[in-house]
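User: Let's play a game. I give you a shape written as tokens, and you guess the letters that built it. Ready? Here's round one.
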């Protein structure tokens, strides 16, 4: 599902009318109907509610007037306040103003004094429908409307607020808050979510949100190459739950080689291996430092292990390259995952860089594997693998070290940073955090909606590395960024299941592993 800015939404609406011959008045009617459907679903029965609909002068106000008319057609008596001169209404908003007048003229709020006099009569309101501004705002609220918004937030604590498209005061184009805004309990938006619905802190102000389709053909969105931000939905990743062939065997689902672990960090290697198996890989082998191998092997019965020469600190030594030792390990493998628990010894970092720059297998790089390239991305080579089959999985701190930017700068421009880095190096980037991003070399960026703060615990990144590697091993013909998106979604869904069972504070990375099968099942059944 695409994520749009205000101008992109306007372009899509215009295209819908001009190329696909859907009248704009029909779009507005369908938008109002979608809001009424949501109200009915969430707050039924509506009859006891004392509803006040706040309408502005633009199309958002027109949507609100459609809502008012449809509610009146159902026998309800919403109070409608128009914060504009009725004579100044234009286009579809003017048409719907005239239609609404047949069932009772809206009350016109001419200015601040009118509002201050009027608001005392609204104290028994149980539901405000905010149709003042929608997606049309580009600068902070001021003056008259600013006081109205403040009053809605402060003086009606018992009333719930539904925002039409977006709460007034929020810019559709950014997750940043540009000023004061209505705080909504829920929002109904149209055709596609806007940027502010998805990214913090703005997304914390919109409440629960739903997208209503109002007549825009999917072709209008899919045919626009300028729309490059996407919201991952269950239907986008359900393909990973497809049934297996009756004649399938383990060789059909790939063999993952994991270079991971060191003394004191053996759990990372084992969790990565178990996650790759839980993802469905046919075979998994962990190559680790010789001293660490007995512990890693004891942590899992289903994966294989290979001992490699080690440094004095118990990390994998550069001598692992001697005599073609690693070349033999790579032979016959489908995917290579490098980094979890591998350590930061200079010799180990040199091994990682050498292996990454020469290996031809699809590659997942995480943790200390990424840190091996901190400050040295100019040495990174990606010409030994097809475009996009290298997957980097940094958290913001690791991303800062890779780019030389401050972590705060990474967080402030997550989408832009992820897209630029992915395209620059021809790789798939998984930038972890709230709303994990998956960026591909094509410029498309996916936003993951699953997951929760309970996953902020050691080892969950290792689980993700294993899931990505395990899915890449099975779905080698798919676009790597699609596979990474599915893995991130599955990872977050398993985390959400763990949180539902255990609560967030007590969650462990292993709890995610135990719930990957259930997450798979839910995706296959479409029961989310």
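Assistant: Ready! My guess for every position:
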């Amino acid at each position: 599902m695409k994520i749009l800015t205000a101008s992109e939404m306007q372009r899509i609406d215009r295209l819908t009318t001009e190329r696909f011959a859907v009248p704009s008045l029909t779009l507005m009617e369908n938008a109002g109907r979608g809001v009424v459907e949501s109200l009915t679903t969430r707050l039924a029965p509506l009859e006891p509610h004392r509803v006040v609909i706040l309408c502005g002068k633009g199309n958002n106000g027109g949507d609100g007037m459609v809502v008012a008319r449809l509610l009146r057609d159902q026998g309800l008596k919403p109070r409608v306040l128009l914060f504009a001169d009725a004579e100044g209404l234009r286009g579809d908003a003017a048409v719907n103003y005239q239609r609404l007048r047949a069932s009772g003229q809206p009350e016109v709020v001419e200015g601040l004094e009118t509002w201050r006099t009027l608001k005392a009569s609204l104290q028994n309101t149980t539901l405000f429908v905010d149709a003042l501004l929608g997606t049309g705002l580009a600068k902070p609220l001021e003056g008259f409307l600013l006081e109205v918004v403040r009053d809605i937030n402060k003086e009606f604590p018992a009333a719930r607020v539904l925002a039409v498209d977006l709460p007034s005061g929020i810019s559709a184009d950014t997750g940043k808050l540009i000023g004061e805004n209505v705080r909504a309990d829920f929002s109904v938006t149209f055709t596609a979510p806007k940027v502010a619905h998805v990214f913090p802190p703005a997304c914390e102000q919109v409440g629960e949100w739903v997208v209503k389709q109002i007549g825009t053909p999917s072709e209008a969105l899919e045919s626009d190459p300028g729309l490059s931000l996407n919201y991952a939905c269950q239907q986008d990743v359900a393909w990973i739950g497809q049934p297996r062939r009756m004649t399938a065997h383990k060789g059909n689902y790939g063999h993952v080689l994991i270079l991971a672990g060191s003394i004191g960090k053996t759990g990372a290697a084992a969790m990565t291996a178990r996650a790759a198996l839980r993802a469905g890989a046919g075979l998994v082998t962990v190559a680790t430092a010789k001293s660490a191998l007995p512990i890693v092997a004891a942590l899992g019965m289903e994966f294989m292990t290979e001992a490699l020469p080690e440094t004095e600190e118990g990390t994998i030594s550069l001598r692992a390259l001697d005599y073609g030792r690693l070349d033999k390990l790579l032979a016959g493998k489908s995917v290579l995952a490098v980094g979890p628990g591998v350590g930061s010894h200079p010799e180990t970092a040199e091994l990682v860089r050498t292996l990454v720059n020469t290996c031809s297998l699809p590659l997942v790089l995480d943790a200390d594997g990424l840190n091996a390239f901190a400050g040295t991305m100019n040495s990174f080579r990606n010409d030994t693998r097809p475009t996009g089959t290298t997957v980097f999985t940094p958290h913001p701190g690791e991303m800062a070290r890779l780019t030389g930017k401050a972590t705060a700068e990474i967080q402030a421009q997550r989408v832009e940073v992820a897209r630029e880095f992915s395209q620059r190096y021809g790789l798939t980037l998984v930038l972890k955090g709230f709303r994990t991003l998956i960026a591909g070399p094509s410029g498309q960026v996916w936003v993951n909606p699953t997951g929760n703060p309970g996953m902020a615990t050691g080892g969950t990144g290792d689980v993700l590395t294993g899931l990505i590697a395990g899915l890449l091993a099975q779905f080698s013909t798919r676009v790597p960024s699609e596979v990474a998106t599915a893995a991130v979604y599955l990872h977050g869904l398993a985390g959400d299941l763990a949180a539902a069972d255990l609560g967030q504070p007590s969650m462990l990375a292993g709890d995610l592993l135990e719930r990957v099968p259930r997450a798979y099942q839910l995706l296959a059944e479409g029961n989310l």
